[in-house]
Design brief:
Elements (H helix, E strand, L loop, with lengths): L9 E7 L8 E7 L7 E11 L1 H9 L12 E9 L11 E5 L8 E5 L3 E3 L13 H14 L8 E4 L4 H12 L4 E5 L2 H9 L4 E4 L5 H8 L5 E6 L6 H7 E9 L12 H7 L2 E4 L7 H14 L12 E6 L3 H10 L5 E5 L2
Parallel strand pairs: 8-9, 8-11, 9-10, 11-12, 12-13, 14-15
Antiparallel strand pairs: 1-2, 3-4, 3-6, 3-15, 4-5, 5-7
InterPro entries: ADH-like_C (IPR013149), ADH-like_N (IPR013154), ER (IPR020843), GroES-like_sf (IPR011032), NAD(P)-bd_dom_sf (IPR036291), Quinone_OxRdtase_PIG3 (IPR014189)
Pfam families: ADH_N (PF08240), ADH_zinc_N (PF00107)
Protein name: Enoyl reductase (ER) domain-containing protein
């Protein structure tokens, strides 16, 4: 991507035209957004596809969110706001964005913008922000994961799971995970999981207890919504924590109260998108200091599928099928 760049007035983006399936994602001509004082405008190379995008599409247009989905991008900075320091036009970056990623240009808060790691390509870097911000926030901010503690990650070959396994095992934590096939279990173990359990064939809570000598794990990251309430508590160690992600609706959860009390366990959850910008910026600083030096060497995103922006609907359909292992990216420019 050559620089300097001339920013057009109009761009192509993908809109959620109505609540529904992948077919409601339609290309449209849209204005290129203007930078606020603390923002940067990125000419998007690639955008990541996430479960949150699917949930937003199913709900339909929402005036509280940008009409273009997409929560992470990589690309080149073309404009910066008046209060931005440390990021300049021409920088190759990846960023967490508050919507707008499925478009040729996207705005990002400057505190959530990170340089493309030296050992990675610009396009692959779009697979980093959502998964790594999610991992750090949930394990370290919400669950207060301590040195030496063990974890269980449901969905070990998801975009979040594949990076979380690598990051946490590199930091010295023993990582267990569940996956939907033996092939996915093998992939998770190759990425650093101590053991991966095929949840279609194995009672994971019994497998976790057997693997830990009856102790259980300290933290569980659950992306399955309410399905595993009782089983997660059974797999927990005393004073363990369960953190839930993206239930896809206002799902209720059933928990064994007496067992929860006996273990003094905590069951909680988080939403990354509404997190204050200052807290997201703190996560970005943590990542830059601790994860960035080994990205592309010790820790690599697993890219399952690349599609052009115009095929955003096909990308959503592929993610919903659940048969891929790794991240789906949209090539924008």
């Amino acid at each position: 991507m050559p620089f300097p760049d001339t920013v057009p007035a109009q761009q192509t983006g993908i809109l959620i035209s109505a609540a529904g399936g992948p077919e409601v994602l339609l290309p449209a001509t849209l204005p290129v957004p203007a930078c606020g004082p603390g923002e940067v405008l990125i000419r998007v190379a690639c955008a990541g596809v996430n479960r949150h995008d699917i949930n937003q599409r199913r709900r339909g247009p929402d005036p509280s969110h940008r009409p273009v989905p997409g929560l992470e991008v990589s690309g080149v900075v073309v404009r910066t706001g008046a209060q931005v320091a440390g990021v300049a036009a021409g920088d190759e970056v990846c960023a967490l964005v508050d919507g707008g990623g499925y478009a040729q240009y996207a705005l990002a808060d400057a505190g959530q913008v990170l340089p493309v790691p030296a050992a990675m390509s610009l396009r692959d870097a779009a697979a980093l922000p959502e998964a790594l911000f999610t991992t750090v926030h949930n394990f370290f901010n919400v669950a207060r994961l301590a040195p030496g503690e063990s974890v269980l990650i449901h969905g070990g070959t998801s975009g979040v799971g594949t990076l979380a396994i690598q990051l946490l095992s590199w930091l010295g934590h023993r990582v267990y995970t569940t996956c939907g096939s033996d092939a996915k279990c093998a992939m998770a173990e190759a990425l650093g999981a101590a053991q991966a359990f095929n949840y279609r064939e194995t009672a994971f809570e019994q497998a976790v207890l057997a693997a830990t000598g009856g102790r259980g794990v300290d933290v569980i990251l659950d992306m399955a919504g309410p399905d595993y309430g009782r089983r997660n508590v059974a797999a927990l160690a005393r004073r363990g924590r369960v953190v839930h992600l993206a239930p896809g609706g206002n799902a209720d959860i059933a928990l064994p109260l007496r067992e929860l009390m006996r273990k003094e366990a905590v069951v909680t959850g988080s939403l990354l998108r509404p997190l204050p910008d200052a807290e997201k910026a703190e996560i970005a600083r943590w990542l830059l200091a601790r994860a960035w030096p080994v990205l592309g060497t010790r820790i690599r995103p697993q890219i399952a599928l690349r599609l052009p922006l115009a095929q955003a609907g096909e990308a959503h359909a592929a993610l919903e099928r659940g048969d891929l292992a790794g991240k789906i990216l949209l090539d924008v420019q």
